[in-house]
Write a structure and sequence with these properties.
Low-confidence stretches of chain A: none
CATH architecture of the largest domain in chain A: Alpha-Beta Barrel
CATH superfamily of the largest domain in chain A: Metal-dependent hydrolases
Order of helices and strands of chain A: EEEEEHHEHEEHEEHEHHEHEHHEHHEHEE
Mean pLDDT of chain A: 97
Strand content of chain A: 15-25%
Distance between the termini of chain A: 26 Å
CATH class of the largest domain in chain A: Alpha Beta
Structural class of chain A: alpha/beta
Oligomer: homodimer
Number of domains of chain A: 2
Largest interface: A-B, 54 and 53 residues
CATH topology of the largest domain in chain A: TIM Barrel
Strand order of the largest sheet of chain A: 3-2-1-4-15-16-17
Shape of chain A: globular
Largest sheet of chain A: 7 strands, mixed
């Protein structure tokens, strides 16, 4: 008998489109061999023999994908929030990341990161490590043990990293190949992703070699794009040949539907079209973009263009790990952008924020981010009974409140990735 | 023996100015008869006989004042976040507030509000009720029982409230007098505050009568000011005689150092000078101002001018009750304001946000918001041990992290108001 087949009964809620949400009170979400067989108002006879988990009145929603987070920065989230991107990198981030040359530091730090991520609403994540091969493998070991599904990248950076955090170009490429060989076939749900830090940290020569490796080994790619005006100006100086910052990646073949580019706040028309045409994923990181004084990305425009967009907490640019907080932040900054930057782009709705956190980012992992039939069965069960109100609320209203108030009384009681239950203790 | 005299030992942290914070690791915060006798590195001999509460390594900080919050809106926080101010008022707020004509609804709703506020980091609050006298008295009864110190207002609104939420002018004034007579001498730490909702809800005639009552009975005042461009335009139509929106209150003598005006996002030079010259308090409500698409107030400018400024959660314009979240939001939006609106006004620091939440808003209650000698002994004890990191952190870094990560593992373990311990169960 397959223990990966079962039924969850509760108040089910998931997006059927970016704008629309289906809610079924007292519904049945059916998992067969780790894949959703659909959500039903009455349990179909053919599933009657499956074990049933009665979640009572709790909310059942799709798992959430955090498609941009820096594992080594978890150690200093909430600190040093007084600087802009480039100064913040030099003052806080690079010195912290240099510690990961020491495996015992990495062990302590990644142990905390992995166990906190395990207990968070995140089911899948696209993760930056550091440039250190040993520490990155250790991170992958720990993430594999959580049961979550992740992409993890050894970071490449062969310029502008300062004394303790800069690789030799050839060594960076060689280390990357060594790392990939080490981790090949080592994990069930943890996979490598090619990770040039960002153009200011990676020479054209290394960028070309990383693109070769990604192509040869059919690997996905993650990096940063158009986060901050000073960064954008710097890339223009570093790559005078490029038509836009995005072109500094695309020129090497690094954009496409298996690439995540974080931020994309200052993408002009050329760059937006490049991202759209290549199917590149935009990781929207609303809290980080506020905390590092970067700005607010035009996510409404990206959605309207049918682009691939998801959410990232971008710890430690963003301090908070919770994808619910990330959703609330996405809605809030979209309203400020409407008011302060461009009234032609309406704010995001909470429904759209839920879509970004689930199906939007989830699709980077395949058929992930919905409870509709055929999707990997990634699910969260949420207890909102301590978020009290005298009102009678419908399922959607309860979930809407949970997005804003998860941290004030919400409780994640169960979590599944491809039908496997995650230990939340 | 006075049980209101004791010593707290732990990592003490409080502002000595808006920009500066004093931290004493393993320090002694001394409370004598409910008033701070100071914070010491070694316990002075004269306090050696006082009972000592050893808080170990926990953080000890001043209590926090939420100087703008709507108790009746607590029931729908996190809902209906898709509208701007005026539509939100008509669609969500006014219909909800109309329920408070029913004392049994008010009983259920205010029971939840008061008990959640009791367990929050807030020690003092300036609170809007509804226009209903009975419900407002019930709210005051419940707040008194929490042990917190609050100002609570019966709301006045004799125009533009719609069918179920609009008072007759004479009745509004008479109800206010009846309410004030009912609550006179009824409470130790719960006091009435005159509360014209905002100019669009209050005729000039009623505004004048409220000003008379405030003057006769020496009462403080709270209202809203310059929150939203449509609101500001409306006030210009309603009070064509006023030099600015603020003048629509000042004309009646309603501004001054015992008045809180929430928001002040769109205050022009005339209005800012009016607020400064009168010593009126600005309640900065960063999350609400984002969620209702209002904008971002120029708090840096108000601080530079030496104005009275504090923080408000403005539930339910803001969804979150936590003053730590409010601080983090204040810093975040100040960075977006710097980037998107006015690069001449630097962002707020976390130190300044702490000052706003403690001494800034606290001074509305008298000598409140610091652990320095002579202040009312309002204090919080915070356990940050579950906000794990592999780093060694100093006291200020721990507190800085707590501001951003309170909701992800922080725990309020003790709370005092004027030396009286609050039940957090």
């Amino acid at each position: 008998m397959d223990t990966n087949s079962f039924v969850l009964k509760g108040s089910v809620c998931y997006n059927t489109s970016p704008q629309e949400v289906r809610c079924v009170e007292g519904g049945y979400a059916v998992c067969v061999d780790g894949v959703s067989a659909g959500v039903f108002e009455q349990l179909p006879e053919r599933f009657a023999a499956l074990p049933l988990v009665d979640c009572g009145d709790q909310l059942i929603v799709p798992g959430m994908s955090d498609i941009h987070i820096h594992a080594p920065q978890y150690a200093f989230r909430g600190l040093g929030m007084d600087l802009e991107l480039l100064d913040w990198l030099n003052t806080h981030t690079f010195p912290e990341e240099a510690h990961y040359a020491d495996p015992s530091y990495a062990e302590r730090a990644y142990d905390i990161f992995a166990s906190d991520l395990r207990r968070s609403p995140t089911t899948r994540a696209v993760v930056f490590g550091t440039m250190h091969v040993e520490a990155t493998e250790l991170l992958m070991d720990k993430l594999e043990a959580t049961g979550l599904a992740t992409y993890v990248g050894k970071v490449n950076m062969d310029r502008n990293g300062g004394e303790n955090l800069e690789e030799d170009t050839a060594q960076s490429a060689a280390d990357t190949r060594r790392w990939l060989s080490d981790v090949a076939d080592r994990y069930d749900r943890t996979a490598p992703i090619i990770t040039p830090r960002f153009t200011p940290s990676v020479t054209d020569e290394l960028m070309a070699q990383l693109a070769d490796i990604a192509r040869e080994q059919h690997l996905p790619v993650q990096s940063h794009l158009s986060e901050n005006p000073s960064e954008c100006g710097w890339v223009k100086e570093l790559c005078p040949w490029s038509s836009c910052y995005g072109d500094a990646y695309d020129h090497f073949g690094l954009l496409g539907p298996r690439t995540v580019m974080a931020h994309c706040i200052y993408s002009d028309e050329t760059e937006t079209e490049l991202l759209r045409a290549t199917g590149t994923y935009v990781a929207h990181c609303p809290q980080s973009n506020a905390q590092l004084s970067s700005g607010i990305a035009p996510i409404r425009r990206y959605l309207d263009l049918g682009m691939n967009v998801g959410l990232g907490t971008d710890v430690a640019g963003g301090a908070n790990l919770s994808m619910f907080r990330c959703m609330a932040d996405a809605v809030a900054v979209s309203k400020l952008r409407w008011r302060l930057v461009d009234e032609s782009l309406p704010a995001l709705t909470t429904q759209e924020a839920l879509w970004l956190a689930t199906a939007g980012g989830g699709s980077f992992f395949g058929r992930v981010g919905s409870l509709a039939e055929g999707y990997e069965f990634d699910a969260l069960v949420l207890d909102d009974s301590k978020i009290r109100t005298p009102r009678e609320l419908g399922v959607w209203e309860r979930l809407e409140r949970y997005v804003y108030l998860a941290e004030e009384g919400g409780s994640l009681t169960r979590k599944y990735v491809s039908g496997r239950q995650i230990d939340l203790s």
